[in-house]
UniProtKB/TrEMBL annotation:
<dbReference type="GO" id="GO:0000166">
    <property type="term" value="F:nucleotide binding"/>
</dbReference>
<feature type="domain" description="Glutamate/phenylalanine/leucine/valine/L-tryptophan dehydrogenase C-terminal">
    <location>
        <begin position="144"/>
        <end position="352"/>
    </location>
</feature>
<protein>
    <submittedName>
        <fullName>Glu/Leu/Phe/Val dehydrogenase dimerization region</fullName>
    </submittedName>
</protein>
<feature type="active site" description="Proton donor/acceptor">
    <location>
        <position position="80"/>
    </location>
</feature>
<keyword id="KW-0560">Oxidoreductase</keyword>
<dbReference type="InterPro" id="IPR033524">
    <property type="entry name" value="Glu/Leu/Phe/Val_DH_AS"/>
</dbReference>
<dbReference type="GO" id="GO:0006520">
    <property type="term" value="P:amino acid metabolic process"/>
</dbReference>
<dbReference type="Pfam" id="PF00208">
    <property type="entry name" value="ELFV_dehydrog"/>
</dbReference>
<dbReference type="InterPro" id="IPR036291">
    <property type="entry name" value="NAD(P)-bd_dom_sf"/>
</dbReference>
<feature type="binding site">
    <location>
        <begin position="180"/>
        <end position="185"/>
    </location>
    <ligand>
        <name>NAD(+)</name>
    </ligand>
</feature>
<dbReference type="GO" id="GO:0016639">
    <property type="term" value="F:oxidoreductase activity, acting on the CH-NH2 group of donors, NAD or NADP as acceptor"/>
</dbReference>
<dbReference type="InterPro" id="IPR006096">
    <property type="entry name" value="Glu/Leu/Phe/Val/Trp_DH_C"/>
</dbReference>
<keyword id="KW-0547">Nucleotide-binding</keyword>
<dbReference type="InterPro" id="IPR046346">
    <property type="entry name" value="Aminoacid_DH-like_N_sf"/>
</dbReference>
<dbReference type="InterPro" id="IPR006095">
    <property type="entry name" value="Glu/Leu/Phe/Val/Trp_DH"/>
</dbReference>
<keyword id="KW-0520">NAD</keyword>
<comment type="similarity">
    <text>Belongs to the Glu/Leu/Phe/Val dehydrogenases family.</text>
</comment>
Length: 363
């Protein structure tokens, strides 16, 4: 049964349904919070089976972005958008331009970026209709592919986890399993091998595995994720789909640290407690994979790669801060990360961001 926005009681500030008959655009923009600043979050283009499914996804994703941006220390709120349709069949310039006009009509309350089904070239088209877009190509003043910084942030989170658990941030000699070696996972492998870690990979795509093996013949390959997580790992890095940590996997996981790029790794509430009970240190996904959003946020100031990388490096310190708070409060790291993000949003509530929005609009 379809449930309305108010009935769900999610705490969102604003949800906008966008319809353009000429282009066939059907989109939903959800703004969870603007306490810390404009709500930044990507646009997902996906063939949802129903409008209710699309609404559920955008509400969950936008809340997640608010927490991610707050925990990363960014002057941004959280939002997200979904376009309903198959991007291979329904994505057109006309549709993207119509969507850009809806984003512009919000006057800076929402800033968009890439997500599943949307790419840098799409942001360039959207950017012809709105000032409030990031993730554009370098030719259009953007930062380009954000996977570069996403992987670097996960690497920093992994180093922080190692230092917290083992007293040394070095990953040399550690057995690290990477599940999913698309763009982010493949770049993470580069960092790990540079530090002389022993890397084992798996992926549903043989082509993705071949790309890594061609560049790094020394990498081992597991048949699948089930084989990977039981292969005597020190660190497990889920870098593919969400829900990687579920009732089945956490009971057989051999790693002492979980730190990866995948979103929504915890299959359901309570999994973090099982990890903690087994003595497995979990680095919250939205903490360590925030490098991409840090990178696109830097575009708002005129993108500078070195400056963005310095910002992403702070994920190391934030990860240790989360673990320290978790130990002091006697709660899982995921709970501690939520507490830090919530405190930052609560502290900023009521401060407003409109001078900043006006500043962005002037660019």
């Amino acid at each position: 049964m379809t449930r309305g926005v108010f009935e769900r009681q999610t705490g969102h500030e604003q949800v906008i349904f966008c319809n353009d008959a000429e282009s066939g655009l059907k989109a939903i923009i959800a703004i969870y919070s603007t306490a810390l600043g404009p709500a930044l979050g990507g646009t997902r283009f996906y063939p949802y089976s129903s409008e209710d499914d699309a609404l559920t996804d955008v509400l969950n994703l936008s809340k997640g972005m608010a927490y991610k941006n707050a925990l990363a220390g960014l002057p941004l709120g959280g939002g997200k958008a979904v376009i309903i349709g198959d991007p291979q069949r329904h994505k057109t310039e006309t549709l993207l331009r119509a969507y850009g006009r809806f984003v512009e009509s919000l006057g800076g309350r929402y800033i968009t970026a890439c997500d599943v089904g949307t790419y840098v070239q799409d942001m360039d088209i959207i950017g012809e209709q709105t000032r409030f877009v990031t993730g554009r190509s370098p030719q259009h003043g953007g930062s380009g592919d954000s996977s570069v910084m996403t992987s670097y942030g996960v690497y920093q989170g992994m180093r922080a986890s190692a230092e917290y658990l083992w007293g040394n941030a070095s990953l040399a000699g550690r057995r690290v399993g990477v599940a999913g070696v698309g763009k982010v996972g493949r770049l993470l492998v580069d960092y790990l091998l540079h530090e002389k870690a022993k890397v084992i990979i798996t992926d549903v795509s043989p082509a993705a595995i071949d790309r890594v093996k061609q560049a790094h013949p020394e990498v081992s390959v597991a048949d699948d994720t089930a084989a990977l997580i039981t292969s005597g790992l020190d660190i497990y890095a889920p870098c593919a789909l969400g829900g990687a940590l579920n009732d089945d996997t956490v009971t057989v996981l051999t790693a002492k640290i979980v730190c990866g790029a995948a979103n929504n790794q915890l299959a359901h509430a309570g999994i973090e407690d099982v990890l903690a009970a087994r003595g497995i240190l979990y680095a919250p996904d939205y903490l360590v994979n925030a490098g991409g959003v840090v990178m696109v946020e830097d575009e708002l100031h005129g993108f500078d790669f070195d400056r963005a990388k310095r910002k992403v490096s702070t994920i190391f310190h934030t990860t240790k801060e989360v673990f320290t708070l978790a130990a002091a409060e006697g709660v899982p790291a995921a709970t501690a990360a939520d507490q830090i993000a919530e405190r930052r949003m609560m502290h900023a509530a009521g401060a407003g961001y409109w001078p900043r929005a006006a500043e962005l609009a002037a660019h």
